[in-house]
Design a protein that fits this description.
The structure holds two protein chains of two kinds. By secondary structure, chain A is an alpha/beta fold. Chain A is built from three helices and seven strands; from the N terminus they run βββαββαβαβ. Chain A has a single domain, classed as STAS domain (Transcription Regulator spoIIAA, 2-Layer Sandwich). In chain A, a hairpin with a 2-residue loop joins strand 1 and strand 2. Chain B has a five-stranded antiparallel sheet, with helices on one face. In chain B, strand 4 and strand 5 form a beta hairpin. Chain B has one domain: Heat Shock Protein 90 (2-Layer Sandwich), CATH 3.30.565. Chain B is an alpha+beta fold. The chains are: A alpha/beta, B alpha+beta. Chains A and B meet through helix 2 and helix 3 of A and helix 1, helix 2 and helix 3 of B.
């Protein structure tokens, strides 16, 4: 599970570089994200443009990352692909995240 | 053959997809990858492919995490086209399901920031005719996924 983090004007953008966050990679994703978000900016945007598939373990890991950031910081999601979006919608977890259809203006440079 | 339910003309059902895998998450990932490029998935829309991958990922990972929680063994996956459906069967030799039936769907409660129990909820939401039985020391799960939304 490769993650690339970039600091940009008060926002930490984390690009998920693998094409899936699934049961085989969820724990590693969570642990790497833990290291990245520790002491990071209040706003963290997870770029999921490359993630074509997310299962319930992957979803649980994304929720866990938001919880580890605490109540005063936010995890935002960007670039959800159709299957990933379906999982968020079905489980109604889309309601607890700020979801951007693509990377917010100014954060969208290619890695 | 024509499909009774939706008028969709199916030329000929492709051969069933059959695979036996080991009970670990990496094998499940590889099995899904293999399935998604198999003949049985040809011609399905992106949406229907996504649904099949979600449901089978959840069923297979449940077997890995629960039926084979303390042991390991084989999981047999079979997917075949029947008219406008994918008929799916997953068989394992692990522990039986508690109470001899699949877990009831627990409604998703986003406000509680739960990290688990999404799996069976999604299986129930996305599949039809879900059946479970314990036979000859094996768990057999069968379900149907419509190929037309």
């Amino acid at each position: 599970m490769e993650l690339v983090a970039r600091q940009l004007d008060g926002v930490l953008v984390v690009h998920a570089m693998d094409d899936r966050i699934d049961a085989a990679g969820a724990i590693q994703f969570k642990e790497r994200m833990r290291g990245i978000v520790q002491g990071a900016e209040p706003r963290v945007v997870l770029d999921m443009t490359r993630v074509n598939f997310l299962d319930s373990s992957g979803l649980g890991a994304v929720v866990a990352v938001m919880k580890m950031m605490g109540p005063d910081r936010k995890l935002e999601l960007a670039g959800l692909t159709p299957t990933v979006q379906k999982v968020f919608r079905l489980t109604r977890m889309e309601s607890i995240f700020t979801i951007h259809s693509s990377l917010p203006e100014g954060l969208g440079h290619a890695v | 053959m024509p499909c009774d339910e939706c008028d969709h003309q199916v030329r000929e059902d492709p051969a069933p997809f059959r695979l036996v895998i080991a009970s670990d998450p990496m094998s499940v990932r590889e099995a899904l990858r293999t399935l998604m490029s198999a003949n049985v998935m040809q011609g399905l829309s992106g949406d229907r492919r996504g649904v099949a991958e979600i449901v089978l990922a959840e069923v297979l990972n449940n077997v890995v995490e629960h039926a084979y929680a303390d042991t390991s063994g084989e999981i047999r996956l079979e997917v075949q086209r029947e008219g406008c459906s994918l008929q799916c069967e997953v068989v394992d030799s692990g522990r039986p399901m508690p109470g001899d039936h699949p877990p009831d769907p627990i409604p998703s409660r986003p406000e509680e920031l739960q990290e688990g129990s999404f799996g069976w909820y999604m299986i129930r939401m996305l599949s039809q005719d879900l059946k479970y039985r314990r036979r000859n020391g094996q768990n057999e799960i069968r379900l149907r996924l419509p190929t037309i939304a």
